[in-house]
Amino acid sequence: MSTQWYPLLSPCLPRLYGLTPRGVALARLVLFSVILLIAGLPVSDALAATGHHASTGKRRDDAVKKKKATAKKPSKPPHRKAVAASTSRKRTASPRAKGPAGRKATKPPREAKAAVKRPSAAAKRSAGAKRSTAATVARAAPAVPVAAAKVPHAQVSTDAKPRLLARCGFTPASRKRLFSRAVYIVDEKTNTPLFAHNADQVRPIASLSKLMTAVVWLDSRPAMRAPLTVTKADLDTLKYTHSRLAVGSTLSRTDMLHISLMASENRAAAALSRDYPGGRKAFISAMNAKARALNMPNTRFENSTGLSPRNVSTARELARLVRASNAYPLIRRYSIDHQQQVHTGKGQLQYVNTNRLVRFGKVNASVQKTGFIKESGHSMVMRVMVHNRRPVIVTMLGSDTPEGSRLDGVRIAHWLSCSLQ
């Protein structure tokens, strides 16, 4: 059956019968409908297939016609609408393009592009003149050294007034939580007070007196390796405090100074004052004279150990004593030492630092001293090295407990490390 109907459905129908493509499509539609009705297939599928073939044949014929028409016409360079539009806008915007009749002179697109790309000779000459002028000015200007350019920045960072910051915990609520009754914090580099609370209040200072004991004794330039023996004259007759250093113990003067500063050994400090040229009375006079020389008018000493409540000073004046003590290498070394074993002639004694912040490495200090008697409370002075390079002196007097003094030191150390750079 397919062989009988194939000539009718072939693409040669336009040549055989002289029909148009639309007529051929219509004939195919009718023939397919009849065949499918006989075969029992749905007519919708046949209609879709017929429409597809018809449209495909029509598109093919249109494409062939377009190719023929293009081959006959001469080729012309296409112009883009965007280029034409931009050229027209440029012609409209330029005010100098008007002719004598009031019309706007037009330029071909290529000439306009060339004018934009290539600057005129006059423009080149003016640009060259500007460059030469700039070079002349640059040669005439004096050269500024790099170090001089960096001086203002360094001066700002060095001379800037330091202060404790609220974001670092330095708030009114935090300051009220301090356990010490008198506190003074001063930046040694700029001599700027960072915080003062009852800083000029005269209070007993207890064993903080031993810093002055060490300063005055070292000023006498004693023989450090010479032995020194503890006698009954060195016993405490004020508070009757106990000491591990028994009468008859013999130590070198170096060890006496060491345990006096680090472990606050009272009998060692008493032995040093007794060993002073002129005796203990001359030593106390030298301590008060040194206080006046350091501009400490409210400071008084009655003994070298600090067991007397009449050894008094202020938090502000003690900061001056700490600064003076830092000039002595032995005070710096012995006061911050963690522990020391000494030979007494009757055996060995192990001493540790009384300042737990220094002993356990919670604070980096170059000078420190603690003190306590009932009248003074627990006190502490330190020369804290903030970030291991910036010295700040901290004096804290009158805490009821040693834990309160320690917590104040931790709090203040946090203020300093966070606020100062």
Automatic annotation (TrEMBL):
Biased composition (Low complexity): 117-135
Annotated keywords: Carboxypeptidase, Cell shape, Cell wall biogenesis/degradation, Hydrolase, Peptidoglycan synthesis, Protease, Signal
Protein family: Belongs to the peptidase S11 family.
Domain of life of the organism encoding this protein: Bacteria
GO MF entries: serine-type D-Ala-D-Ala carboxypeptidase activity
GO biological process: cell wall organization; peptidoglycan biosynthetic process; proteolysis; regulation of cell shape
Protein name: D-alanyl-D-alanine carboxypeptidase
Basic residues bias: start-end ranges: 65-93
SUPFAM superfamilies referenced in this protein's UniProt entry, alphabetically: beta-lactamase/transpeptidase-like
Residue sites binding substrate per the record: 369
Organism, as annotated: Pandoraea horticolens
Domain (Peptidase S11 D-alanyl-D-alanine carboxypeptidase A N-terminal) ranges: 177-398
Active site: 207 (acyl-ester intermediate), 210 (proton acceptor), 264
Record bears the keyword Hydrolase: yes
Region named Disordered: 51-135
InterPro entries the record matches: Beta-lactam/transpept-like (IPR012338), Peptidase_S11 (IPR018044), Peptidase_S11_N (IPR001967)
